[in-house]
Amino acid sequence: MEARPCIPSDQVKDFVGNAHGDLERVKELLQQEPGLINAAWDWGGGDWETALGAAAHVGRRDIAEFLLQQGARMDLFAAAMLGEIDIVRAFLTMNPELKHASGPHGIPLTRHAEAGGTAASGVVELLKS
What we know:
Distance between the termini: 46 Å
CATH class: Mainly Alpha
Low-confidence stretches: none
CATH topology: Serine Threonine Protein Phosphatase 5, Tetratricopeptide repeat
Strand content: under 5%
Structural class: mainly alpha
Mean pLDDT: 96
Helix content: 40-55%
Radius of gyration: 15 Å
Number of helices: 8
Strand order of the largest sheet: 1-2
Number of strands: 2
Shape: globular
Order of helices and strands: HHEEHHHHHH
Number of domains: 1
């Protein structure tokens, strides 16, 4: 497999930053550079975040679902926000301590689930049990 050139850091920052709330800009940036789909930005001090992670902690189901459809890698925090209880349960079965995990910006897993609203209420109950 041939190595591709690195994506400019300003593009990564723009993509991840906009995934907190601007679906149209996310679509535009991804069309310009498909390699952004799983890119991660370090906000400082090891606070790594992907676009999917950004959408997950602010409860932007529309952005998260779009990113997943485009090939973003599902993670525990996005699964919690989306109400994917079987995925969350599988992670917790493998490692029960993940119940207390923190994602981007130190936001706890439970808060990601709460950001998912009614669709993630089962995950919230699981994490609080």
